[in-house]
UniProtKB/TrEMBL annotation:
Gene3D superfamilies hit by this protein: 1.20.1280.140
Record protein name field: Cell wall mannoprotein 1
Species this protein is from: Aspergillus sclerotialis
Keywords linked to the UniProt accession: Cell wall, Lipid-binding, Secreted, Signal
Signal peptide span: 1-20
Entry GO terms, CC: extracellular region; fungal-type cell wall
Physiological role: Constitutive protein of the cell wall. Antigen target of host humoral immune response.
GO molecular function: lipid binding
TM segment ranges: none
Subcellular location: Secreted, Cell wall
Protein family membership: Belongs to the cell wall mannoprotein 1 family.
Keyword Signal among record annotations: yes
Name of one Pfam family that matches: HsbA
Amino acid sequence: MYLKPTITLLLTLLLPLTSTTPLNRRDASTVIADLNTISADIADFDAAVNVFDGSLAQALAIQTKENKMEDDIQTAIGHTQSSAAFTTAESTAVTNTLLDLEPDILSSLNLVVSKKTLFVKAGVKSLVHLDLQNLKAKTDGMSTALQAKVTAADKATIASHTVDVDAAFNSAISAFS
């Protein structure tokens, strides 16, 4: 009597769950694509910082680019954590892609510091300080996630380079303190 409508309702509610597309597979190629996205984010961020003249409108544009970078790093962390341990070849490819980002990160941090007086003029010095702290935390999170998936040798390489990147972040954060 009341059972048929209840079963119909349950099937109506549960059927979409069983027929949805399965979760996308997370693997080294996904992580490499994420790292390439982060590379593009750094380039976009740098382009905005390069033309920054101290105006609040341009500071907002930079903030938007920084937020996208944070979001994309967080996505990469999630994809990395969802991946199985990488094979030796995958580990090497991911590590090399990550290491390709290091000069861009260091250059970007130097660029931001070189524009400090303009950030102060725009009244966003404390926001830049906070953004640098957030990016450092996300970058460290990415390093930790990757170290859990790569080979022992690549883990040591990533850890070593993370120390260098952290030093650059700490210097930039200190400049905005």
